[in-house]
UniProtKB/TrEMBL annotation:
Keyword Hydrolase appears in the UniProt entry: yes
Gene symbol of the encoding locus: FUS2_1
Domain AB hydrolase-1: 195-334
Record-given protein name: 20-hydroxy-prefusarin hydrolase
Record keyword Hydrolase present: yes
PANTHER family: CONIDIAL PIGMENT BIOSYNTHESIS PROTEIN AYG1 (AFU_ORTHOLOGUE AFUA_2G17550), DIENELACTONE HYDROLASE DOMAIN-CONTAINING PROTEIN-RELATED
């Protein structure tokens, strides 16, 4: 079997990047922060959050300097040390003299604890998966308590399915009866609702939009606390969130300007939900995803994919897991296997791929009846071409927006200003 150990440095760290792409820094739109493309992407995520107070640039570049390419533990340890250090600064009573100090230090500490966690999902029993998550949650809660209007954690049961949804409500105004436009924000494969604060919430609040972020099955806190992997019928996650907003927050939400945002694989989940949830007024897909299996299975080399497609699941599982155990996968591929199995709550790669087949828009796309922003990224590596498929299926209901050049990574990572400017300009024009 032919395996390429290094993937293209601009290709974001998503799935089983076993495809033959040569590393070539000169093709990258940004200066690579690691020769390891998975690490480069994680470092871009971290730096990208600096614009909303979720990281500091020198300390992140300092951690990056000491990380050994390919060594997941070194990545985790550097961010754990930086998180500890930032937490100690946050906890210093003199630091807490004002809300800005408090939220900057705690938001950054929270983000560094999440980065310390992200590459550790090979071993589900690693106690750090629990302890780092408790740290990121506590740090984040300290930060949102110090916002001018504190964020409010809420939990409510799903109406269909036995799980509980975790959400955070952020009001844009202290007025008890100002009806404001509102974003309902969800992530995809690996990001947490705490990340959503930096991706969308901070820039939305600044523009006078309320926000609610949420997590459903498969997403970091629900996966840990309720031991549930992803579910395809995502309307059963979004509908209870909309119920909550339109009942509990009815006085401050403009029900004619209620937009659903989906980030990354969340671009699929949000589109699926809006096909069933008629109270949403517009959807924002960052970026458009048409078919999860098509995207993920294209990351496999043709020979290993053939084993799966021939139905020899035991051989497929054994081959992929032994490559992983022998350290023969690129960091992108290794992380994709580790994280995908964990998030879909299965130890079997073939079961994972079987599950991904349930996530395709074709069967429900005709039920979408609202305006849709379909983001598309020049350097999209997992779902290339899929935003165009979403646009084609939606026709005039969709606006396809190409993020090009340095904003062209998966989800416009590290170009958050350019991404949110485009999204809010479209929302302003559309609603
Ligand atoms: C990298 O890409 C550049 C521009 O596309 C090309 O000139 C160069 O030869 C490539 N280098 C390698 C090592 O492939
Ligand atoms: C971070 O602090 C914890 C104690 O809170 C300690 O157990 C851990 O070893 C520290 N990690 C690093 C990398 O310094
Ligand atoms: C599946 O793969 C195993 C291991 O290569 C092989 O022994 C077995 O015959 C295959 N089964 C089928 C049905 O192809
Ligand atoms: C995207 O950027 C590339 C490189 O800068 C450029 O060649 C191309 O024309 C751009 N495409 C669009 C649609 O702007």
């Amino acid at each position: 079997m032919k395996l390429t150990l290094a993937t293209h440095p601009i290709l974001a760290a998503w799935m089983l990047s076993l495809t033959a792409t040569a590393a070539n820094d000169s093709d990258s739109p940004t200066l690579p922060l690691s020769t390891d493309s998975a690490f480069n992407f994680q470092l871009l995520i971290t730096l990208g959050d600096a614009i909303t107070g979720g990281a500091d640039i020198g300390p992140v570049l300092g951690a990056a300097k000491n990380i050994i390419p390919g060594d997941f533990s070194s990545f985790s340890e550097q961010f754990y040390a930086l998180a500890n250090d930032t937490k100690a600064q946050a906890a210093d009573p003199e630091n807490a003299y004002d809300g800005i100090n408090v939220r900057e230090t705690w938001f950054s500490a929270s983000q560094y604890f999440r980065r310390a966690d992200i590459l550790l999902h090979n071993d589900w029993d690693n106690p750090l998966l629990t302890s780092l998550w408790a740290e990121q949650t506590a740090a984040f809660d300290a930060a949102i308590a110090a916002l001018p209007i504190p964020g409010q954690r809420v939990r409510f049961p799903a109406t269909k399915g036995s799980f509980t949804i975790d959400a955070i409500w952020y009001a844009a105004s202290a007025s008890p009866d100002a009806k404001l436009p509102t974003l309902v924000i969800g992530n995809g494969f690996d990001a947490a609702q705490e990340d959503s604060y930096h991706y969308f919430v901070a820039s939305a609040l600044a523009r006078g939009w309320n926000c609610i972020t949420y997590e459903g099955p498969g997403q970091p806190t629900i996966r840990r606390e309720q031991e549930l992997g992803f579910i395809p019928d995502w309307e059963n996650v979004v509908t209870p969130v909309v119920d909550y907003v339109l009942s509990e927050k009815a006085n401050v939400v403009d029900e004619n300007r209620l937009a659903l945002v989906g980030n990354s694989f969340g671009g699929y989940l949000a589109a699926r939900a809006v096909a069933f949830e008629s109270r949403i007024s517009a959807a924002v897909l960052v970026d458009g995803v048409w078919d999860l299996y098509a995207g993920y299975s294209a990351q496999l080399t043709p020979d290993i994919r053939a084993i799966y497609e021939a139905g020899n699941y035991s051989q497929f599982d054994q081959e992929l897991l032994s490559l992983r155990a022998a350290g023969k996968l690129s960091s992108d591929a290794a992380w994709g296997v580790d994280y995908g199995l964990w998030a879909f709550n299965t130890h079997s790669p073939s079961d994972f791929f079987d599950q991904t087949k349930k996530y395709q828009l074709e069967s429900v796309v005709s039920q979408i009846n609202v305006p849709v922003f379909v983001g598309s990224a020049q350097f999209e590596n997992i779902f290339p071409g899929q935003p165009q498929q979403v646009k084609d299926a939606l026709g005039d209901k969709a606006t396809l927006y190409l993020f090009n050049g340095t904003a062209g990574y998966h989800c416009q990572t590290a170009a958050g200003q350019e991404m949110t400017r485009a999204v809010f300009a479209w929302l302003n024009k559309t609603l």
